[in-house]
């Protein structure tokens, strides 16, 4: 039995929005409706050295210390590093197995922040971007969903660039919007990859791998959530955009701080907004998928 009342895992959490999500979960948990005792937050990251350094940064964070958020300062939260590379099925499987062993009764929150943004656009960039952002996130959700407690939350960090706009041909937009099964979204990802390989994407697809990968995350989240709800599960699965955040991924060009970007995913994770399922959230509000 776990000695913690609540358990969360945040992926891609050694820097940027992911690290800010860990901070904000610790800061906001005591005032949240989820609070019913000690809270363990797993800071999951691919690189062990960077992940463990991020935990040390959290432990020395002056704002957390002043708020007495962490157990070492008399608070409720504890932060531990856990390895996870969502680009690797074996790593995801190991991550899920570790959590199942440590918390056989399940965990409360999975906040999927891990992802990549690559420069350039060609078939190789498309394959690598989709493999991580779409297929990796989907695999993490599928592996972890059976371990999320009834009433728990899965939050997938997507992006407003994943909104369906005029860069997509009308029939493609309709297929995204009308998809009922995750396989239909995966089919679209495969068709995009093939179209780029054949240099036949113009006029049908955007020439941007990250954009399409995040449309895939929004669609996959929606279809998985709807399918999961049919089983009677009360686990809520939503996607969200943190906004244009000043991080390495935006090359420092973002307008929001990481803490500001963390607000919507953290509020969804703690149940302070939401109560809904299968939606895309932006700036704390449900947002239509189609522009």
From TrEMBL:
List the SUPFAM superfamilies hit by this protein, alphabetically: NAD(P)-binding Rossmann-fold domains
Keyword field = NADP, Oxidoreductase
Which Gene Ontology molecular function entries are recorded, alphabetically?
oxidoreductase activity
Q: This protein's superkingdom?
A: Eukaryota
In terms of Pfam families, this protein maps to: adh_short
Protein family according to the UniProt entry: Belongs to the short-chain dehydrogenases/reductases (SDR) family.
User: What protein name does the entry list?
Assistant: Carbonyl reductase
- Organism this protein belongs to: Knufia fluminis
> Taxonomic lineage per UniProt?
Eukaryota, Fungi, Dikarya, Ascomycota, Pezizomycotina
């Amino acid at each position: 039995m776990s000695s913690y009342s609540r358990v969360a895992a945040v992926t891609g959490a050694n820097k940027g929005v992911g690290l800010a999500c860990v901070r904000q979960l610790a800061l906001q948990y005591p005032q949240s409706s989820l609070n019913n005792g000690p809270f363990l937050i797993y800071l999951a990251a691919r690189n062990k050295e960077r992940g463990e350094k991020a935990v040390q940064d959290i432990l020395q964070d002056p704002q957390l210390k002043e708020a007495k958020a962490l157990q070492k300062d008399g608070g409720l939260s504890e932060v531990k590093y856990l390895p996870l590379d969502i680009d690797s099925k074996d790593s995801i499987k190991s991550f899920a197995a570790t959590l199942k062993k440590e918390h056989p009764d399940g965990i409360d929150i999975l906040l999927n922040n891990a992802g990549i943004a690559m420069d350039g656009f060609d078939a190789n960039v498309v394959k690598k971007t989709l493999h991580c952002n779409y297929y990796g996130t989907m695999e993490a959700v599928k592996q972890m969903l059976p371990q999320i407690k009834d009433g728990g939350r899965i939050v997938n960090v997507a992006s407003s660039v994943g909104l369906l706009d005029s860069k997509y041909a009308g029939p493609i937009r309709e297929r995204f919007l009308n998809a009922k099964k995750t396989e239909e979204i995966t089919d679209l990802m495969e068709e995009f990859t093939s179209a780029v390989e054949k240099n036949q994407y113009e006029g049908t697809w955007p020439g941007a791998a990250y954009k399409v990968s995040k449309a895939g995350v929004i669609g996959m989240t929606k279809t998985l959530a709807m399918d999961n709800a049919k089983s009677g599960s009360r686990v809520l699965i939503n996607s969200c955009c943190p906004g244009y955040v000043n991080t390495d991924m935006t090359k420092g060009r973002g307008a929001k701080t990481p803490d500001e970007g963390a607000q919507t995913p953290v509020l969804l994770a703690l149940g302070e907004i939401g109560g809904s399922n299968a939606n895309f959230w932006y700036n704390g509000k449900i947002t239509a998928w189609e522009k």
